[in-house]
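Exercise 4. Each item below gives a protein and its sequence. For each, produce the structure-token representation.

Item: tRNA(Met) cytidine acetyltransferase TmcA (Thiosulfativibrio zosterae).
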Amino acid sequence: MLSAQVKALKTLSEKLLKAQIRACLLLSGETAWQEALCQAFLAQTPLKQGLWVGEHSPFTQAKAIHPKAASLLLGQETDFVIFSATEGIDPNTLGILSGMIKAGGWCIILLPEHQAWLNLPNKSCEKHLSFPLKAKDTLRGFNAFLWQQLTQHAIHLTQHQDPKDLEAWFNQFPLNQTAPCQTLPTPDQLAAVKLIQKVALGHRKRPLLITADRGRGKSSTLGLAAVALMEAGKRHITLTAARPDQVKSALQIVEDAGLTEFITFKAPDELIANPIQTDLLLVDEAAHLPLPMLQTLIQTYHRLVLASTSQGYEGSGRGFELKLSAFLDSATPGWKRLELHTPIRWRAGDWLENTLNQTLLLTPCKAFNSQENNAPIVYQTLSVARLLDNPQQLHELFQLLVSAHYQTSPNDLMQLLEAPNLTIFAAMQNEHLLGALIAISEGDLPLPDPKKPRRLQGHLFPQKLYQQTGNPDWLRLKGLRVMRIAVQDAWQNQQLGSHLLQHLTPFAKQQQFDYVASSFGVTAQLLNFWTQNDFKTLGLGLKKDHASGTYSINLCQPLSQSAQDLVKITQQMVTPQWVYCLQTHYQDLEIPTLLAILKTLPFKAAPFPLGYLQQQPYESVSLALRDWTLGELDFLSTQADAQLQTLFSRKLLLNDAWENLVTSQLNSRKQLEAKLQNSLAEYLDKNRLEN
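Answer:
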């Protein structure tokens, strides 16, 4: 049987290579059979060098690689990759390494028989579980889903299966013919080169966004365009990306043309800290950069091209595109977008690409217009069993998360289906998903050993608050943290998010949680949403989030009396310290966000230092003015002039130096201070009359 199976796979492999198609092979059975089959198969095919995902490879042709090191191989190619259930199946790694496989190559996945696989803990889950959970505690939902998808979309061979069952694959188009030679550059690439040239030579402030799935020649297109521009006389082209290796293919094309002296790679943070003069800035793998960093680059460099992978190495490209597009619409209305469709590293209709898109739910869902009917909206919990029974709902849920949070990756799909301490709430209409809320249980933790303090895995909110306040009650209480909340575009601003939170609260009380919490990158708009739903501010993180470029804020809705008392004590403790840090640590906080945060904190009214409107210098009353302002934030928030609101806030609250605040209209301290004093006097007079 083994020799017949090897022969069938060898025949299929020859056809794949001829057609320039890759495939995914699922082998389910005993380990000894899997290894014997792979060893014989690899020995009889041109597949000479590949990768084994795990610590020790049983095959001389396969180099062992740890999943954490997968991203370091981006830009390289391999003949095959082998994943084994004994080493754990990591979805992100599956996506990354499969994109490296050459045309005619294989992604081979080794799983035990069906029931054994459903009962086998997945080692890759452990890093996504909260203390004290281990892989043995998981729901095995991802195991079941992976089996569903692979048996449906991959070539499946079992230990005792007749290889004749594979004949159905032999006759599929396009394996009956030799793939035509791909003419390079493709029509897609030529169209992109023309648009890039237009960015460099045409009107300024017309950025171009190029998107493509993997293998479409996106990076090489940037190199081709750079060569065309340099041959046309441009002498200052700049490339940037999160890592230098991400522009390797673009630089190789320039090097082959002998024009490397006219192109430079610079790190994105360097381009922002020290702006340069350049004919064109090319940003590769833009989704790997923080959105605020990209926004600064767009505002600084007026001839700019961004390239991004649609379904990126972590499957988050689509959410990134939606958020970046919204910014481009407002900042540079003349921007253009182009998508590359034609693959150049393998043939269109590639089997492996289709298998991965289905298995990792990377393709957008079919559109549905739920607003055309009057069906009621139902709020309910979604169990893993229900999602597995209804793959369409699971697809809608994951794609909703991708569109709302561009850091969403296939590993998040695994966590959804495996973590036993997650709760999924959904707003449904006609069995379609309109919005979703995902919460995770936290807290009920042991007190740390003062001699050996360590951070436990997971439990983000209680450990943050314990670190911030030193109060161990945050570790003892039992909380439910909202990890994600997302609503379909057509249903936003219609209270669905608030209704989801309102349905979560009675559930949390019934399950005897002390509080509901959330922690996220703060903006004024987001904070207003949460405070309108009765969440209390409990301080800000010290570091900005890499992806969002915003500070993380901690919010809590206390449910039990213990939590209410603790929230009150915590606010009283953190508020004065946070206000003090405004002058030392949060100088870069956006003023609308700053004011939104301050409005949520308990400040007492303080007397106004009237002497400042007469003869006292600012330096004599600055502390009194700050305390009055904190209790009278309407003075700042009601300023009709946004520039004055910023200037006054930076002086009164952040104690910024006068010389940093002067403008072309108020070009000296004297003018600026006179404006501040007049505005204060008018505000006091108005309030005196109204009262």
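Check: The first strand starts at residue 23 and ends at 28.
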